Amino acid sequence: MKTLNCCLTLVCHKSMEERLVDHLLEHPEWVSGFSVERIEGHSQQEKLPSVMEQVRGRSQRIEMRAVMNLDDAHALVAHLKEEEHNHDVAYWITPVLEFGRLA
Tell me: the pLDDT tens digits for 43-94? Predict the structure, then answer.
């Protein structure tokens, strides 16, 4: 079993949710599970597509998190850069000191 030693976080506009979920589901060799949360975000580089988002100054975003192996996280990011190549998707990788189940 691979060491689960990092957390990959992806943040994108809500319109991209299903496409990114599909990428994660298509690669069980890299991602064994993930969480999806609805959030709001603001960036000076961001284009706000709806009038509501323009008025509020922030957009409806999706945050996806997966605890995974660092090499697999790098492979997934490289895959997403090639397949999606979208400035609107942000990501970061953080260390995970320990991961387990209570049972």
Answer: 656 666 666 665 566 678 999 999 999 999 999 999 999 999 888 899 999 9
Domains of the chain, earliest start first? 6-95 (3.30.70.120)
Helix (H) or strand (E) holding 89: none
Euclidean distance between CA atoms 10 and 83, whole angstroms: 15
d(CA 89, CA 62): 10
**Torsion angle of alpha carbons 38, 42, 46, 48, nearest 10°?**
70
What is the predicted pLDDT for the residue at 49?
Answer: 62
Pick left, alpha or beta for residue 39 (phi over 0 → left; psi -120 to 50 → alpha; otherwise beta): beta
Q: Are 6 and 68 in contact (CB under 8 A)?
A: yes
Section 6-25 average pLDDT? 95
* Better-scored residue on pLDDT, 13 or 47: 13
In the three-class reduction of DSSP (H, G, I as helix; E, B as strand; rest coil), residue 73 is classed as helix
